[in-house]
Description:
This protein has four helices and no strands. The mean pLDDT is 89. By secondary structure, the protein is mainly alpha-helical.
Amino acid sequence: MTPKEEWLRFSGWDSSEHGRWLRDNIASLFDLENPTPAQRHILHMASLRLTLEDLPAAAYPNQEAELRTLAEAEFNWKHS
Length: 80
């Protein structure tokens, strides 16, 4: 399974329109040949999120919120 496929399958961000939007936009970064530093950071955080799924939430309690904030800023999420 590729990192992109793993992210799409296991991110857990599929229960809302916003979550799917974030999940799919982050997944699109896996296809870039030369991601920007900000995009590389988001990819790192996405990989870390998959790793942390197996650990207690206390291991990095703000990781999901930080990843969501970074992705929202990168992809210009507009609150409705």
